[in-house]
Design goal:
InterPro entries: PsdUridine_synth_cat_dom_sf, PsdUridine_synth_RluA-like_CS, PsdUridine_synth_RluC/D, PsdUridine_synth_RsuA/RluA, RluA_PseudoU_synthase, S4_RNA-bd, S4_RNA-bd_sf
Distance between the termini: 48 Å
Number of helices: 7
Keywords: Isomerase, RNA-binding
Largest sheet: 9 strands, mixed
CATH topology of the largest domain: Pseudouridine synthase
GO biological process, one term: enzyme-directed rRNA pseudouridine synthesis
CATH class of the largest domain: Alpha Beta
GO molecular function: RNA binding; rRNA pseudouridine synthase activity
Helix content: 10-25%
Number of domains: 3
Domain RNA-binding S4: 18-75
Length: 311
């Protein structure tokens, strides 16, 4: 990721008559080669006008330069994110309600807000285990998926929770509004998932993919869509979205996986109708079974009401 630093200085009398690139080198602490390159890219102006590297400067003119600099795309930027709610906090864990549009941790190509950035900005100290950009992270939710998730604050909690997710002892419950009516009304999708062969931002049911198991049950059936409760055995990227799409019942609003754009517009959705409603696990410190819940955010609640009212 590239950002630019904007700098400006007036040319001192002692540099009057120098070439612009030479004057810039002295004024801004750049090499002449770097200064000449910035001029060639059109990133330098003198008194608001364009300039060539061999042009001469007059005393008192304003030299402005935009200096691009590379920023580590995986660096955690502390930033309090509006909409993230803390459901529970103790010495071992913090449980949050993640809104849509927030990534769990930094990644290449993502420049928006993150959960780890919010926790850093809000003063939370989380476990240092894991890769630098996702320390303390034991599970993930898609940027476009909202709901409850847990982050480890202690090293022991990280180890215990990682192990719990790995051995599938964590109870992960989602609600999804899908197009049409799955037949049967409840069942299990046991289909391996791998990266899509033609679109690297998507996933698909693939014979050589990783084992993926999704259990679903119909809670409500309406004219255009059904509300499902979903329990995951595995935690593959986009698992629910891929499995529902494979059943020909994609999540309402999930245009990436084949949802009807007309229905998405009708219910006012710009993302998939998918929400992590409940998370249950053995507390890593006390050993007690705990459970945390999240209610539907406004956009999903309003879309569901529209579906319920459809005639």
């Amino acid at each position: 990721m590239t950002v630019s630093e904007e700098r400006s200085l007036f040319v001192p009398d002692g540099l009057a008559g120098e070439r612009v690139d030479a004057a810039m080198a002295r004024m801004f602490g750049l090499s002449r080669t770097r200064a000449a390159d910035l001029i060639a890219q059109g990133l330098v102006s003198v008194d608001g006008g364009s300039v060539g590297k061999s042009d001469r400067v007059l005393p008192g003119v304003l030299v402005e330069v935009s200096i691009p600099r590379e920023v580590d795309a995986l660096a955690v930027v502390p930033e309090v994110v509006e909409g993230i709610k803390v459901i529970h906090d103790d010495e071992s864990i913090v449980v949050i309600d993640k809104p849509v549009g927030v990534a769990v941790h930094p990644s290449p190509g993502w420049s928006g807000p993150t959960v780890v950035g919010h926790l850093a900005g809000a003063g939370f100290r989380i476990a240092t285990s894991g890769a630098p950009e996702r320390q303390g992270i034991v599970q993930r939710l898609d940027v476009g998926t909202s709901g409850v998730m847990v982050i480890a604050k202690s090293e022991r909690a990280y180890s215990v929770l990682k192990d719990a997710f790995r051995h599938r002892t964590v109870e992960k419950t989602y609600h999804a509004l899908v197009q049409g009516h799955p037949d049967p009304l409840e069942g299990t999708v046991d289909a391996p998932i791998g990266r899509h062969p033609k679109a690297d931002y998507k996933f698909a049911v693939m014979a050589d993919g990783r084992a993926s198991v999704t259990h679903y049950e119909t809670l409500e059936a309406h004219r255009f869509a059904s509300l499902l409760e979903i329990h995951l055995e595995t935690g593959r990227t986009h698992q629910i979205r891929v499995h529902m799409s494979a059943l020909k019942h994609p999540c309402v609003g999930d245009l990436t996986y084949g949802a009807d754009p007309a229905l998405a517009r009708r219910v006012g959705l710009e993302r998939q109708w998918l929400h992590a409603v409940q998370l249950g696990f053995e507390h890593p410190a006390s050993g007690e079974q705990v459970s945390y819940e999240s209610t539907y955010p406004d956009d999903l609640a309003e879309a569901l009401e529209t579906i319920r009212d459809a005639v």
